[in-house]
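Practice problem: acylaminoacyl-peptidase
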Amino acid sequence: MDDVGGSPIKQIPEGLDAASEEEFASLSKLLQEFTDIPTIDKAWTFKSEIEDGSSAMFLISQPDLLSNKMRKSILSSHILEKSNNSVSFDWAPFPIEMTGVSAVVASPSGSKLLVIRNSEGDSPTHFEIWDQSQVKKEFAIPRSIHGSVYSDGWFEGISWNLDETVIAYVAEEPDPRRPTFSSFGYNKESMTDKEFGSWKGQGDWEEDWGETYSGKRQPALFVIDIFCGEVRAVTGVGRELSIGQVVWAPSVEGQQYLVFVGWPSKRKFGVKYCSNRPCALYAVKAPSFISEASATRNYAAEDSLIVNLTQSISSALFPRFSQDGKFLVFLSAKSAVDSGAHLATDSLHKIEWPSDGNLGPSLKIIDVVPVVMCPEDGCFPGLYCSKFLDKPWLSDGHTMVLSSVWGSTQTILSVDVLSGRVSRISPNNSNFSWDVLALVTILLLVLSSLASLQFDIIKIPVRGVLENLTKGASKPFEAICVSPKCKKPDLHDPLIVILHGGPHDVSTSSFSKSSAFLASLGFSLLIVNYRGSLGFGEEAVQSLPGKVGSQDVDDVLTAIDHIIDKGLADPSKIAVVGISHGGFLTTHLIGQAPDKFAAAAARNPVCNFALMVGTSDIPDWCFFEAYGSEGKSIFTESPSAENLALFHSKSPISHVCKVKTPTLFLLGARDLRVPIYDGIQYARALKENGVETKVIMFANDVHAIKRPQSDFESFLNIGAWFKKYCR
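Answer key — structure tokens:
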């Protein structure tokens, strides 16, 4: 008879033997150390009452693996300026955790703090107004007024007015009325979802903005009075525009305007990672509340027409007013919009704000920093910005500070908006990446635990330059090489080739937890910025469309051969990993160079354009990258057999029969950008051909696979997979 009271049988996870499980456990402990490292999301600085000093506040994030959420906290510091022009930080003893917080925005003076907590389901959104010691006001905004407040960094726009009494913000418009049914059929009168004996129908389907915006249909503009909590939708803005990035304009003859970015809502292509969606700056009269001293605080309702401020340009983003209110500065992604590239080289422009309040299409747009087509060696390559500071101005009132990509680094720049002069603030001779969080505070993060590693940015000549290439496309591209400082001359570490997505994106020398983890396992890293990456001028960006699967593949192989020729890598122990278009390259490489790689890992890879074009939130991307410049004009929602044949020929699936490399797939089941069928089809084809294949599916993840538990399990498996096949 069996001993039912004995010890339970130890179960080993599928795919692991006892020895592998032991190594898996060891790797997980190491990865946990990297995962626990906090990151600074945002910072604010304020004038201090103490002479020669200021105060700063930092919003910090740290993964919480058990709850599978990001833990957010606030850390404060006093900054003292010393006589020798150095500064010292007097930190608060502990950070303060902000549970369930969606957004934190300090008022212009720093005397108040707005905390927003978006709730799930039908629960209201909570607004809290803090002073320096306590919560002063708290308001619950029901979903009948609006849905969640946008805190995504793109549509997000949360802006205090100058006297700190009203806040403008962007939130999801109220849910449309849905049909109600009961046992008697259709009910003409609206009922609640929970009313006994009835249920809500679905109603008409409406497009959302794609990846990461599932269920988000219409970003709309609202204002809230912080004294009474009254919320109003801003009138004059119709549903033909999706709203974002709102700021308060200077008062003109007693009337205040709100300036915001508007995206046409007629056909909503995916907007995440895609600045090629046409947009413009608009102005609308701000609602006015009667002063607090009044006995009744009525909303001064006034219908207002919106004014398009940037009709002559196809893109306008991140509006910022100068400190004196005389001009409005904005970034433009017109190169992306006009060409069709999902990201490209940016430009900077300004509008002189009329003192008489006469707003209209006659306002002249003045170029400040134009698009750089082909930079000279070592010179400014153009603007590549994903955000602006809320308060970017130096004390002279006309110089703004921003961070931008420069080759394979992130740098800090100053721009004089009067002369257009661009200067590099971060060191010219540094390969490190720098970011500006707030003026007064500039941080470079270097971890002492990685002191055993070194990195260099190497220039790699283009192989087989063709005569019809532009000058910018013929210049060397770059790769970041990470390796141990001390190693034996005749011993080469195994190499991991890391490939960014996009393809019009860039890998910089900024600290990466995942890359640091892989390097700590004994691998050297080769992080390739193939032609088409950002940070090298517009000609380099535009050289890739129409040549994906060939030019970018050749660049990666050239970079690998360059490293091998220098004796920096063991050619028998090379692994490759990439996400999205990086996964496209990964699966292309193991098909086009089947004997080159010992292991591969692909995260939400593009494997078949012909499959992706009918399921992705960005079908236009498939046309542009496959056809090049003509792809924008020939795009159609119903591709022809000829289109599909070209898509197949450009895709990794066309080389799948040659693959020998053991390959790991990591897929997000809620990915709207590259739906999982792409990766599943390719993985099934590999299994059919007898190639060692492993698939891990993350049921609740989108394209980036960034939820804490999923990110952890992804790179734990990547590390174990590469260790197994690159010993």
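Discussion: The chain has 13 helices and 39 strands. Students who identified this feature from the tokens alone can consider the problem solved.
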